[in-house]
Amino acid sequence: MTRNKTTNGLSGWLERFSQKATHATGTSMAFALALGTIIIWGVTGPLFEFSNTWQLVINTGTTIVTFLMVFLIQRTQNKDSLAVHLKLNEIVAAIEGASNRLIDVEDLTEDEIATLHKHYQKLASMSKKDVNLGESHSIEEATQRHQRKHQKAR
Prior knowledge:
0% strand; 2 domains
């Protein structure tokens, strides 16, 4: 699959900026910087006589950072969630015998998902009654599946 990493315009710039910001804010250095800011703010309290302005500085700063981080975290969560769904869709589509109705299951209504959930709960319940987990999902079964997969690829 060819990946086009060069997106132009404002959208491309925002994408690159948010990726860098997400990476930077998830580091130990970012945590140390935030902790250092809080320590410095706390230590300077007596210097500013714990004034309203002194409190307003930290309140305003943390409010702005929190506001921006909510959107950054949501963006990252949306992208990660979509990537996981795509990978799972690929697996479902590739496995012989798997139900294709599970592809894009995240787009179903809550009632439809609840119906499917009940169906799979029933299957899990039946599986527990039949045999133990080691017998129903053995290493040998996985090895055979792996060998069949590679034979088809040749």
